[in-house]
Structures are given as C-alpha cells and as structure tokens.
# Entry
Amino acid sequence: MNSIDINTSQNVNISFDPASIGERILAFIIDMVIKVAYFVVIYLVIIYIFGLKLLKITDQWSLMAIFAIISLPVNLYTLLFESFMEGQTPGKRVMKIRVVKTDGYQASFGDYFMRWFFRLIDIMFSSGLVGVITMVTNKHNKRLGDLAAGTAVITLKSKY
# Structure
C-alpha cells in the first residue's frame, strides 16, 4: 500500500498509511446505522408524544418543513462530527481512521465543508459509485471530496 507523505510547516516529513476502501465503507455503514437509529427514535417519540395527529397534517409545506427540521442533524452529521472531533465521525473512530490535510496543516471547517459538499456527488447522487470508482483509480484511496479539499483519510492503526 502506498504511504501518504506529509511535509509539515516545520519541514518534518510524516508518513501515514491511507485507509483502505473496506475500512472507509465499514465506517460509512456504522454511521448510516446511527443515522437510521436516530430516525427510528425520532419517529417513535413523535408517535408517543403527538400520536398520529402530526402525521395527518394536510398542508404539504408544513409537513416538508417538519421533515426538514427533523432530518437536519442527519444531513449535517458528517460535517459536524468531522469538525468537532478533529476529522472523525463515530464510524471513523470505531474503525480507527481519520481525515487529515495533505499539506501538514490542521484541516479547517472549510476543508470539512468541501468534503461534505462533494459527498452529494460521491455518495448520494450516484449511490456511492462515483466515490468508489474515484477511490479505486487513485493510489491514496481518495474520493472526489478528498481531492477537492486537499485531504486524505488515514488509518491510525499501528502496523506492529
């Protein structure tokens, strides 16, 4: 496997191993399970507190606004977790992988936002096909969002 060499601002070379496609997909699946669990809990809470009255709203705009508010944490899940947990989501933390900037600096909110925005193309619009093809075709397993943001997903597991 090719290593990612990062030259820091102090001119120190650091070598990391890129996370494998399998590790990244497993982290994605763990995150998806958490997102689905969130929706199940919210659905049960709405049914328990409001009964079925909330689901019988006839105004389509009100129903879409309620769904948009309820789904906001799921839509911002990756962006918020990567920003506040220094490049990790719960799935990445379980798999011991992390997002790092390839120029040696700490990844910023803008970098995480760029990755999150390109996630629409990589994963959502193409059912993951664009992301997988992009990861397979380059040597550091980067998806389109990583290429645009100048980041890489590395493994934190020790070889030894």
Observations:
- The helical segments are 21-50, 60-75, 77-84, 90-95, 109-124, 129-137, 144-149.
- DSSP finds seven helices and four strands in the chain.
- The beta strands are 4-7, 13-16, 97-101, 151-155.
- The first strand starts at residue 4 and ends at 7.
